[in-house]
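Hi,

I'm pasting everything inline rather than attaching a file, because the server keeps stripping attachments. The sequence lines come first, and each chain or strand is labelled.
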Amino acid sequence: MRQLRNILKVSINSIMKNRTRSLLTSLGIIIGVCAVIVMVAIGEGSSAQIEKQIADLGANLIVVFPGHSRSGGVSRGAGSYNRFTMDDVEKLKQEATLIQWISPMVRSGGQIIGGGNNWSTEISGVSPEYLSIRDWSVASGEFFTDRDVIANRKVAVLGMTVAEELFPDQDPVGENVRIRNTPFKVIGVLAEKGQSGMGKDQDDIILAPSTTVLYRLKGGRYIDMIYASGISTELLDDAQEEMRVLLREAQRLNPGEDDTFNIRNQAEITEAVSEMSRTMTMLLGAIAGVSLIVGGIGIMNIMLVSVTERTREIGIRLSVGARSSDVLIQFLTEAIVLSLIGGIIGILLAILTCTVINSFTELYTLINPGIVILSFCFAGGVGVFFGYYPARKASALNPIDALRYE
Amino acid sequence: MDSVIETKQLTKTYRVGEVSVEALRGINLSVRMDEFLAIMGSSGSGKSTLMNLLGCLDQATSGDYFLDGINVNSLNGNEYADIRNQKIGFVFQVFNLLPRTSALENVELPLVYDRTGRIKDPRRSAVEALERVGLGDRQHHKPNQLSGGEQQRVAIARALVNRPAIILADEPTGNLDTKTSIDVLSVFQDLNDQGITVILVTHEQEIAVYAKRIVEMRDGTIRRDLPVLKRRNARQDLAKLGAEEK
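And the predicted assembly:
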């Protein structure tokens, strides 16, 4: 025990007496550990951010959009089967038991004039339930009602961005806007929702009754998408399946015929995106891990040089009675201590880097304590692994040759 | 039997490829406690090989070597290291101190590897050893802050600190000027007077005459083994040198 303490002391002394060399040796490990932690932190941070943004889409969201049609084996691309009607939505609303809210989505766009300004944006025709589906709220004024929808009323609710562009200095509620020359009365402004996961400004939008948009702006009978909300997260897949069956009925598809629509729920989207970002994180971590191994090779290199450079010292130690195991332990300890010191500095540097990234860039980092511990242990392992060979070499020296070494 | 060293037909053969070189051909040597022995010989005479064997740095090809009553040739590597640690103190021509390490830490070095626990307070033992060689006031100097003679004194203190049965000095004055050489020899003589066995390897007759007995080697054998008739006293010679300078 006393022996081990002494040898530990010898190793620490030797490291402290060669501070520059020790620091340079550890540099590889410092950078490696720091890179692993920061890379994984960036990966996990962005995946957390994306997951949060997907959750912002609304709880238990199910989206149905048109599939593609095939005529004689030729695919005509997504959206070529634009066949949802208000009747389909109505059928779902009447018959689906696992759906809490449902709303059609009719998309249009164009130039908006109001408050002396003009702005080009997207106009979404929806039902009042859309607000609940998207977990959205109204900041001022109010949202339109089912009666507005039934009556095709020309009322609109502005997204925050649109409101600020058109009416920078006043409350738009009660004002009129002209959407493609059709006058609409502004009855409310939506709460701010921010950017979506894909970087789209979700506040750059105007919501209006679905019927109004469909019949007065767009013309025609087909709606673009259906938004719905399942009654619970657990039953989301069942709700999706129920919708699928009902929609197949509505579309009069024969058994065995492909769906003419695509249906996705939020869990699937989250899963897909999480999967992608997990892969990304692992990739980043793996690349950084390579630098940790390179750092280990650096340690081995310096330790090997050090064995040669310190041959005489080893000879002296052997001549005063050090066993070869003492020398082995000393050099191994030096390698491990260097790696662990490198690991600690790397961790501190990583925390610092993440703090800087969080405060000065748009990236968001999330330090994973597991990865910190893992990379620290890995640094120690690198020390043992790459320190063993030089240590072995040092301990195998013959005292006479070692003493005579010039 | 008061021999601290006893060798019987000790041989050492080096094999370099196909060629084998007989460095030692049957050495019978007995060294009593309190002796001050000088081993002399030109290079290639085998004196360094003998020194390495006596110092347990190398193992003999055949023959027996008893050190302090222990048959050393039957020991394994770790026991060899422990013998070096507990029974032998080395002093080298090139001092062999650890660089960037204080005199005190250098002297303490053998105690780091002492597994017996017989020395209770290593730090104090090291200080005492340094005081014994007259460097009590140089404890925290690094080797590069010390003169050659002082460095060799530190090396002697290091050889002393583990209370060895013998001190082996391999050309300890080889790198020192005449006055410093005599100075270092006076340290050896003092230690010998205090009862420590000293074996000195040298090729210079004028150094050997400070010992009590000279063993002369040639071609791997002991050619002559004689007591020193006109032994010189290093202290007196130092005083004389001092007087001449004035």
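The mean pLDDT of chain B is 91.

If the labels don't parse on your end, tell me and I'll reformat.
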